[in-house]
Write a structure and sequence with these properties.
This protein has 9 helices and no strands. With 232 residues, the protein is mainly α.
Length: 232
């Protein structure tokens, strides 16, 4: 028997619509290329993305609250305890190299079939990587926020909701991973497939195995921090 929904169906459809609209507008404004920083100043870009992450978190939280679902049931870990924090940090740090290995395998496989994943990755990196101390500090803040907010939304909210809708954790895992990939559609169709397989599925599996979001939050944040600061 699947777990019950965590929010109203209407709320989930609204959140999906907002994510789809953002992706479409981003694709139209960039011609399918990744978002680039206005005037070369990534501080504005990072600030906008940072605000977007927390607005998304807030929107999902409001739906959970209206439905009577506590945040603790989504995170499913004791953030207020030292043990919970240690589990999150150690588990995420241990899982992160495995996530990177899966991503590398997916990248190699897609490249083998002629997908321009290397070129896509280079465009994303050129558009997003920080330069200088101020941008690097804000990038770290953005990466940590993305780890918290996106894991909360995709591996917490969506995975739980889809599991209830589609009758089990397996369908919930695949549906949430696909939505995560489609949320990056402005980067191009091959990036959607790569992100779904290389990040959406492994992060979802990690959250299921850990029975909480702590390790996946840490792994996600680590991936974004390292990718931005080291160039991939």
């Amino acid at each position: 028997m699947s777990a019950p929904p965590v929010a109203a169906r209407r709320h989930t459809l609204i959140i999906l619509g907002v994510l789809a609209l953002f992706s479409v507008l981003s694709a139209r404004s960039t011609g399918g290329a990744p978002i680039t920083a206005a005037g070369g100043n990534r501080l504005v870009q990072y600030g906008s993305l940072l605000a977007g992450e927390w607005l998304l978190f807030y929107g999902v939280w409001r739906g959970l609250k209206a439905y009577g679902t506590p945040l603790s049931s989504i995170f499913d870990t004791s953030w207020g305890s030292r043990r919970g924090l240690v589990i999150a940090i150690v588990g995420g740090a241990a899982a992160w190299p495995l996530v990177r290995l899966v991503a590398l395998g997916a990248h190699v496989a897609l490249a083998h079939f002629g997908a321009p994943v290397a070129a896509d990755a280079a465009r994303v990196q050129a558009a997003m990587e920080p330069h200088g101390l101020a941008e690097s500090v804000l990038w770290v803040a953005l990466s940590i926020s993305a780890g918290i907010c996106e894991e909360f939304v995709y591996r917490g909210y969506f995975m739980r909701q889809f599991s209830a809708w589609f009758g089990g954790r397996g369908p919930g895992l695949f549906a949430s991973a696909l939505v995560f990939g489609l949320g990056h559609a402005y980067q191009g169709p091959w990036q959607v497939l790569l992100i779904t397989v290389a990040y959406g599925l492994p992060m979802g599996a990690l959250a299921l195995l850990a029975r909480g979001l702590g390790p996946s939050i840490v792994a996600h944040a680590l991936e974004d921090v390292v990718a931005g600061l080291t160039g991939g």
